[in-house]
Amino acid sequence: MRLFFDPRQLEHDPGQELHNGAWTAHSELPGRTRAILEAIGSTETPQDRGEGPLLRVHPPSYLAFLKTAHADWQAAGRPGNAIGYTWPVARRRPLNLSRIDAKLGQYSYDAATPIASGTWSAAYWGAQTALAAVDASLAAENSTFALCRPPGHHCGADYLGGYCYLNNAAIAAEAAIAAGKRRVAILDVDYHHGNGTQDIFYDRGDILFVSIHADPATDYPFYWGHGDETGEGAGEGFTLNLPLPQGTGLSAYRPALATALDRIAAFGADLLIVSYGADTFVGDPISHFALETADYALIARDIASLRLPTVVVMEGGYAVDALGANVAAFLSGF
Ligand code: Q9C
Ligand code: ZN
Fold it and tell me: Which of 229, 293, 296, 286 is nearest to 29 (CA)?
């Protein structure tokens, strides 16, 4: 299995997040990636495929915002990292906003996702990592791992959130379509619903989105990931959400996985992209499922039984001491 990673992804260090009314140490640390690297051994550095593949998902205005947000924040005399304080819930529309605070609200949906000095570079190279993995999977018709950081699945076409800035899985899916693949399936097995990925492909019939996650009735991101969200227009029936209660362990997880895999098999995908989060681990500090390290090998083997070329894209997972072993166990299934 070829493994891809770019060291520039370590330059992102969000520091703090606003959570439950207080500044707390940010969970999405560079040390997560170092722990994974230690467990999986050497990786390949992606080539630079430029901004073109990112622009298949994200509009130029959003990329322009991301690139300069931290510098704009500093130019406004602000301390720390860029974060919003007001959000356009009603009738959000394209506006040529100049104030950094206005732009932060326009292009984000939470206060958990600060923009630091290294954020753009890290996110850019994380996306390049996903693109290198797709190309390798398509060329050899086998499975690859994109060690993306920061994660991507909460980020929509033109908004950041949930520790995510560029949607690596969506960028990978669009690259596969651009390379001539007709149908791409995305299976999201992070603890949290992949609301950004769902939103990007909600009206698409050629990109199936299937997600197993904590019930949004109790867990972030609350507003999306409910079972009655099934897609719209040409995408009606091409979104499948399988929410599970807090406390879920392997015995309840596996039947949901079987349902997800049946849907993917019926879809007839040419390529599978797995948004993999290890925050379903029993010891995860911000999540509430009960999967064990060894369970990840079984889950991955179930997924691999689809016999599809598969790109595993790294999403969440915050139990840093167990993260390397959890990722290695998952990859062993391929
Ligand atoms: N107490 C990913 O796993 N805050 N993002 C949750 C829980 C946001 C997680 C707070 C969690 C985002 C990629
Ligand atoms: Zn997550």
Answer: 286
